[in-house]
Amino acid sequence: MEYVMLFAETPAERGRRETQDAPVYWGAWTAYMEALQAAGVMRGGAGLLPPEAGTTLRLRGAERLVQTGPFADSQEQLGGYVLLDVPNLDAALEWAARAPCAGAGAVEIRPILSAGG
C-alpha cells in the first residue's frame, strides 16, 4: 500500500539547518533516508525550502489571491515528504516514528489515492 509521510518541523528544528548543529541535523536525516532506501520502502521524496520560500494561490471566483510565504498560522510547517510502499498503516507508522522530526514536530501519514479512486 502506498502512503505519503509529511514531515512537519518546528521553527527551532528548521533553524538547526543553518547552525553549528547542522551536521547533527543533516546526519540524522541522511541516516533515516538511507534506512528507508535500504529497506526498499521509499518510492521518492524530497526536503523543502523553508515556508518563507512558498507561494499560496486561492481562487475566489475569477480572482486570484496570491500570498507569498507560509499561509498556515502554525508553529509547525511542512519540511519535506517521503512516498512509501509498505504492507499497511502499522508499517508506515513504524517508519514515521523513526523520523528525526517526530520528537519535536509531527509526521502526518496519508494513503495515496489510487488511479481508480
TrEMBL record:
Source domain of life: Bacteria
Family annotation (Gene3D superfamilies): Dimeric alpha+beta barrel
Span of domain YCII-related: 1-113
Signal peptide span: none
Similarity comment text for this entry: Belongs to the YciI family.
PANTHER family from the UniProt entry: BLL7171 PROTEIN (PTHR35174:SF3), BLL7171 PROTEIN-RELATED (PTHR35174)
Protein name as it appears in the record: YCII-related domain-containing protein
